[in-house]
Each structure stands twice: as C-alpha cells, then as structure tokens.
Amino acid sequence: MTGRFRAAVIGDPASHSLSPAIHRAGYEANGLDWKYEAVTVSPGELDDFVSARLDDPAWAGLSVTAPHKEAMLAYGEADEPTRLVGGGNTIVFGDEPRVYNTDVPGFVRAWRAHGLERPRSAAILGNGATARSLVLALAGLEAREVVVLARRPERAASILDLARALDLHAEVRTLGESAGPVDLVASTIPAAATEEHAAGLAAEAAVVFDAVYDPWPTPLGVAALEAGRMSLNGLDLLAGQAVDQFFLLTGHRVTFDACRSAAERELKRRSSL
User: Fold this and answer.
1) Which of 6, 109, 143, 164 could be joined to 240 by an S-S link, Cβ 3.0–4.6 Å?
2) What is the pLDDT of residues 114-172, one digit of tens each?
3) DSSP string for 256-268
4) Which 8-state DSSP code applies to residue 272?
5) Which of 6, 23, 53, 69 is catalytic?
C-alpha cells in the first residue's frame, strides 16, 4: 500500500475514544483501505510520537484529545479557531503540517442538525479548551451573551477575554450562582461536579448540553429530561467535529448522522460485553 493511509486518535488515556468507530465507518462508506487506531500517549511521550509520524509518509495525521490539544500548536501552522481557542484537535501531516480545531464548527453543525433556533444567551460551565471552543462556536451562531460558571472564577480570565474579543457580553460567576434565563446551558466539567446544581441549571435553560456521553444520562441530562428541556451530549459534539476532521484527513465526506450512528453503535457494542 502506498500513499497516506494511517491515522489515529491520541490522548492520555485514549482507549475509551469512539473516534476509531467513527473513522472506520467512514472508511467503509467511502471504500477506503485505511487504518485508524486509538493510542494512549503520555505528555512525556508526545514529542517522540508525533515527530516519528510527521516523518512517516504513510501517516495522514492525528485526532487529538485531552491532554494534548494545547501542545499541538507546536507541531504545525494553526488555523484561526485553534489560535483563538489555544488548542487544536486535529493535525494534518504533509510538507507543511497544519493544526485545526474542528470542535468549533462541530458544535455549530450539531446545533443546526437538531433544528435549534439561534441561541442569544448561554451559560458555560468550565473554562478549559472545550469551553473556549464553545464560546467561539456560539459567536458563530450569533449569540450575544455568555455567562461563565466556574468553580474557580479567578481562573476564567482567558475565556472572558476570548468572549469579549468576539463581541460577546461576558461575565463570570461562581458555579452555584444563578445564570438567569438562558437559551443554552453547556457543561464541559466532570459530570459529578454538576450534580448538586443540575436541577437549577436545567430550569434556567431552553437547551442543555453536556460534553459527557458515557455514561449517559449525566445528572444534567437527567435534570433536562425531568424539566422537559431539549438536551445534547458529547456524542453530538463528537459527531459534529468528526465531519470536518474526516475530510481534512482523507479528502472524503461523511455526514453528521452517519458519524453519530457509528458512535452509538460502538457504545451499544461495549455495553453488551
């Protein structure tokens, strides 16, 4: 086999990732004889791992998950969302490696796939790379106001700066304070950390998003169901970001629905083991 035909998702850990199921389903649908795997790479191993594959003509690139998204900026030219967020989830190899953040358009795609109306206001739990990606996505959806709910508000300066640079009205409050009525409550923090606040958050939101997808429902997902709210979860973001990621790595197309279905099938397979 010649040409680029290999890719992988890397993280620490990576074995839980559903990306192999999504990408392999895409290969099958497009008639591609490619290989994709999940590889656990520690921060100390990252440079050697990426450098070796940058020099290997069989490798097309990598999907990247925690804790390596910020570190990817050292290995290629970053697109604008990656620069703004400070982290990328995709690196495409070649003569001029490039780093992309497909989480940003991925959330926009997931939101629109569910036929949801423009979110004018949102409350975001957390201030890490995923939370910053959501701020950028919300700006793309023409939101106007963002409240950051943080366990440690003093660490939210960077996400507030990003929101304000995007012309969003932004403020930070301590997790547990009311965000007021909002179109979206989006959690990017561990599910357990939302438990005591879930009912109040769901009551204030038209739509709830929790970046967690396994196990589901999370406390926030349960609260959304009990409050009769529309809910999205990490599978929506995972499928949304995979659409652009798959195209960047292969030059071929997949759909949001196909990506989400592949992820759901893999989750069901694992639960039956």
Assistant:
1) 109
2) 999 999 999 999 998 899 999 999 999 999 999 999 989 999 999 999 999 999 999 99
3) HHHHHHHHHHHHH
4) T
5) 69
